[in-house]
Amino acid sequence: MLRKNAIVILGCVELMLNSVNLLLAAFSAYKGNGDGQLLVFFIMVVAAAEVAVGLAIIAMLYRNTRSVDVSIFNKLRG
Amino acid sequence: MDQFLFFLVAFLAVASAVYFVFARNPLYAILSLIVTMFSIAGMYILLNAQFLAIIQIIVYAGAIMVLFLYILMMLNLNKQDESKKNNTLKFVGVFTAGLLLIGVLGVFRGVQQNQIVVDNADGSIGLTKNLGRLLFNEYVLPFELASILILAGIVGAVLIGKKDL
User: Fold this and answer.
1) How many C-beta atoms lie closer than 10 Å to residue B76's C-beta?
2) How many Å apart are CA A42 and CA B89, to the nearest integer?
3) What's the mean per-residue pLDDT of chain B?
4) Contact B56, B44 (CB under 8 A)
5) Set of chain B residues whose Cβ sits within 8 Å of the Cβ of A35
6) Which of B49, B50, B19 is nearest to B36 (CA)?
7) Subunit contact A48:B59, Cβ cutoff 8 A
8) How far apart are CA B15 and CA B32, in angstroms?
9) Cβ contacts of B74 within 8 Å, gap of 6 or more
């Protein structure tokens, strides 16, 4: 765990999703098939919904604990 | 000219993504992620995927990143983000990424020159008209389900973010 800010960790997930989008769009343009670009469209839809819910969770966590440090959210650990 | 543009946009994307990963201040990190989103939209334009480029700018750089900035500004985190000095984890990460690099290079080494087939695609699949025709003829069910997914996301986000349940 190198970053402990929860918002930046969500941003890293968005970066990974963008890389997959770029790969799909490149292959779709290479083959002349539109399926890849439509899949990119749906991935963007899912990413938007996921970011909305994730940031709502982070906001609620901050409201309860006054911190977004992921190393202190370990109450579920055995 | 095409290659020069590609290298320029690609360098910008990689540089801003690397700065996003290594930045101390989370605000600077999110701002460099916005630059990454714009440069990926530039790459979509280079691929003649015009619909995707506009959607990338509107949805990713215009909505998702702005949402990140809202939450970041609302939390008002003044202290910088300090990463832990965990050398074992860094070594494991570099090792795993090195394995991935070896895998990718192995794929490129096994390709002879006469095996590279240039597909004669006309590149007009990225236009909004063609994509829209495909979306509403074959992918209409995922399209409607995506709208239900967005509705679920809205309800969930509002419910989680309410101050008093």
Assistant:
1) 7
2) 34
3) 88
4) yes
5) 134
6) B19
7) yes
8) 9
9) A59
CATH assignment at residue A13: 1.10.287.3510
Read off the pLDDT of residues B47-67 as tens digits, 9 standing for 90 and up: 999 999 999 999 999 999 999
Query: Residue B79 has what pLDDT?
Result: 63
Residues 47-66 of A with CB under 8 A from B: 47-53, 55-60, 62-63
In-domain check, residue A76: no
CB contact under 8 A, A56 and B89: no
Q: What number is the ipTM of this complex?
A: 0.91
Please tell me the least confidently modeled range out of A68-72, B76-80, B103-107: B76-80
Show the domain range for A63. Answer: 6-71
Region for residue B115 given its phi and psi (left: phi exceeds 0; alpha: psi -120 to 50; beta: otherwise)? alpha
- Closest Cα in chain B, distance from residue A38 (Å): 7
Size of interface A-B (CB pairs under 8 A): 157
Find the mean pLDDT for residues B141-154: 95
The number of distinct structural domains making up chain A is 1
Flag whether A39 is in a domain.
yes
pLDDT, average across residues A4-22: 94
Take residue B89 and report the two structure tokens written for it: 């984890």
Q: Is A10 a member of any domain?
A: yes
Confirm whether A34 is domain-assigned. Answer: yes
